[in-house]
Structures are given as C-alpha cells and as structure tokens.
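Budget justification note: compute hours in this period were largely spent on complex prediction jobs such as the one shown. Inputs:
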Amino acid sequence: MTDLSDNEAEVIIVGAGPVGLWLAAELRLAGVDTMVLERAAEPVPHPKALGLHARTLEQLALRGAVDAFLAGGVQVPAWHFGFLEQRLDLTRLDSPYPFLLSFPQDRTEALLQQRALDLGARIIRSQEVVGLDQDDTGVRLTTASGASLHAGWVVGADGAGSAVRRLTEIDFPGTDADVYAYLGDVHAEQPPPPGYGVQNERGALIVAPLPGGVIRVTGYDPENQEPGRREVTLTELSETATRITGADFGLHDPTWLTRFGNATRVAARYRQGRVLLAGDAAHMHFPAGGVGLNLGLQDATNLGWKLAAVAQDRAPATLLDTYGTERRPWALDVAEHTLAQTALITATTPTGQALRRLLSGLIGTLPDLSLTLARRLAGVDVRYPAAAGAHPLTGTSLTAGLELRDARPALVTAPGVQLPPPPGIRVVELPSLPGATAALIRPDGHVWWATSEQHPAAAAQQALASFNVRF
Ligand SMILES: Cc1cc2nc3c(=O)[nH]c(=O)nc-3n(C[C@H](O)[C@H](O)[C@H](O)COP(=O)(O)OP(=O)(O)OC[C@H]3O[C@@H](n4cnc5c(N)ncnc54)[C@H](O)[C@@H]3O)c2cc1C
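Corresponding output:
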C-alpha cells in the first residue's frame, strides 16, 4: 500500500471494495495512472456476498483471471429465486460457467486487491473522502485527514452510502426499506444439510456454507422488523431459527451478526462531468439472488476501457455517456427483480403462500421459465443497445473461447474467414461464430459490430473507423 506523497493521478477511485479494485486493475491494463482511496484501515474481515454468477466469471476469464476463483470456489448447480422451493437449474445456462460459484466476498476482494497492486495501482487506506470540487480540467478531492488530491477523473465506488454521489448531487431515487433481514455467520452443533432453506407462514430461513466450518443463516423474521436496527444477538437468531424451522441447529460462536433492509435505489445518472459512479454507489437493493457484487463488477468492466481511452485522449469524453446508457437499465432490472423476490420471501400469508406454490410449480414444470429466471440472475441476458438495423449479435456478450488479457479489442472471424489485421487490433479466428463471419469485440467482451458478409474486410474497416476509440 502506498502513501500520499504523490497526490496527483489520472484517475482516482474512491473505495477499495470489489468494484473499485477491479476497476483499478482494468485501468492499469491500459497504463492509466490510478489511485484508490479507501476509508477503512483494513479490508472487512467478513464476507457480504457469497457468490459469483456466470457473466462475472466470463468477464474474469476474458482477462485470464478466473482460475484462482474456480480453484478456490464451489460450483453450485441450482439456485433459488425468492427462496422458492423449486430451484432454478443453472446447468442449462448458455455460458461456459453454468453454475453459481460459491466464493466469499472477502476472498474476492483479496484476489482483486492483489491483481490491482500487481498491475501497479496505488491503494491508499485510512483516507475518507469528504470533499469534491470539479471543473473542466479535473477534480479535487479532500479527505478527512486534511489531504488534498487531484485527478483528471474520479470514480465513486464507495458503496451504497456514497459520499461521491452526495458531493456531486446525483439523485438516488427509489424506495426506502420496509423489510429487514437477519444474518448470522455462525458455527452449528447440528448444521442443516447443504442447500437447506425454509419459507413458511412464520418466515424464511436459508443456510449457506462458509469456509472454516461456519454457516450463514439468513432470512426474514416477521416478528423482528424494527426499522433501522443493525444488531442481532445469538439468542435472537436461535429463537428465529426455532420459530421458523422448529430447530435451532445448536448455533454458537458467531463471527458476524447483522440485519439489513431492502432499500432499493438507482442513481439518476452515472456521470456528472468528470465524476462517475460504479457498483453499490450507483445502485442498492435487497441481496436476494446474490447479484449486487456481480452487477458492480460488470459496471467496472464496462467503464474501465472507456475511462482509460478518454483519460488518455484516445476517445471523446462522450464515450463515457454510453457507460450509463448501457449499465443503468440493468441496475433497474435488478432493482425490479429483487423487489419481486422480496415479495416472495416475505409472502407469509395464506394468499402469499399460494402464490409461492403456484410459481414454484411453474418453475418445476416449465424449463424455459426456470432458464429465463436463471439467465436473469446470472446476468447472461445482459446486452447493450444496438443501432436500428445492426447485426443481431451487436451488443451481446461474445467471450467464449476468447481472451483479451490486455483489455484491447479483437476482430474475431468465423473459421476460414481471412481478415488483414488492422493497426493495433488483433484478429482471432474462433472455432465458431454462429450467424456471422466477423465481429469486432470491445474490451469488455461485448460486440461492437458484426457482419454476415462473405468477404467482410471492407465492412470491418468501416466499423473500425466508426469505433471512434484508438488503441
Ligand atoms: C448481507 C449481504 C449479502 C450479500 N450477498 C451478495 C451475494 O451473495 N452476491 C452478490 O453479488 N452481492 C451480494 N451482496 C451485495 C454486495 O456485497 C455489494 O453489492 C458489494 O459489496 C458492492 O461492492 P462495491 O465495491 O460497490 O461497494 P462496497 O463493497 O460497499 O465497497 C465500498 C468501499 O468504499 C469505502 N468507502 C465508503 N465511503 C468512503 C469514502 N468517503 N472515502 C473512501 N472510501 C470510502 C468503504 O469502506 C468500502 O470499502 C450482499 C450484500 C449484503 C449486505
């Protein structure tokens, strides 16, 4: 970790959570001088998120960074939507990673921090950003310790309570919490079997394994809904478990006990001049389905190459507006389905229970419904807007069989299609490119342009000219 002797950077990221760290690494791949300022002296020791979904794994793989995650994680083939009894079958996902990877957030952060440091990012801890001023040339930040720092661009990756969002006066519209969940990371004398979950007229409880023999017990207890209270005691957790499931599992020695609400908000804008928001700073919601961290990492993959290009004068600043245009709708989508899941989790009335049985039955009998919901949680349905008349692949993610370790784009071709390599862009022949002969893949793995023309060289050249980003 570095000190503050050099208080200037091309980009300063506020917040060394997973999103800030992944973004720092993305920027460093392009050689951007990147500093990360973090309020906390040390990384948080307990994991919030427990899982990485398919699209996130695809993006890690695109950078050649997925192996450490796969090696240390557990592949979960079925996942829940709103704690419904009938699980979603993830094995049918159209992804090289048709599962949820159980991988605690503290370990994710450790790997991402190491990656950012290895790539040359400066990470400075114990620095809380409290002031922000921007003009046409850059942004000045001040910290609680009195330091003053300057950057061409600033990204607020400082979580749901984002100071950067507040200081730039970006609205955060949405709904306040009206449901509170309990969470305990605990040991258990009689742990329930893996995948255990209950939802009934008394509440909801789900159990997930953590490393070191710890289990996470979390859910909804209608009898403990005082707004704003953070604390949970072990006695309370045991009583809740007994009330909902009939057993207390011999819970003991908690490592983390907390409560959290379902406030659901999405920032009105992702960019204000030279300041951008990413991750929880841009969106917050109930952690149903385990998607928030994934959504944020995917923000960073979208933003990194664009911000690098703009900061290095390789693209016009308007490129940064596409970040919000592309990412904000997916945050709204997550906000919507996590609200729907909250309704299912808290459906304890006879009518609510009937709705749950009906939906659960449909998921069990309609494989396409199961797949649609699974794709939504896994993020594999994420695609970005394409111009009218564009090839159908445009905007989709196309990463299978492709590595862009240096975060530079690639022209990919169907087998046997020859293309002369344009300056600065590699040409990669894929084992298959269904429905197209050639495609230009952006550094984040999404298709910028594709064609089905038999001789695509001229069209490819035109597409590259319209890309408006130099590499
Ligand atoms: C109980 C729970 C379970 C969850 N489970 C899942 C799950 O299974 N899957 C999933 O995908 N998501 C899950 N989430 C959501 C996930 O944890 C978040 O989406 C994720 O942490 C967001 O990462 P971030 O980097 O955007 O923000 P954060 O992780 O909040 O990091 C922000 C960082 O900014 C720092 N900071 C804040 N203010 C300042 C400041 N003024 N100056 C400097 N630094 C500052 C903070 O100290 C922090 O380190 C869960 C969340 C909770 C609460």
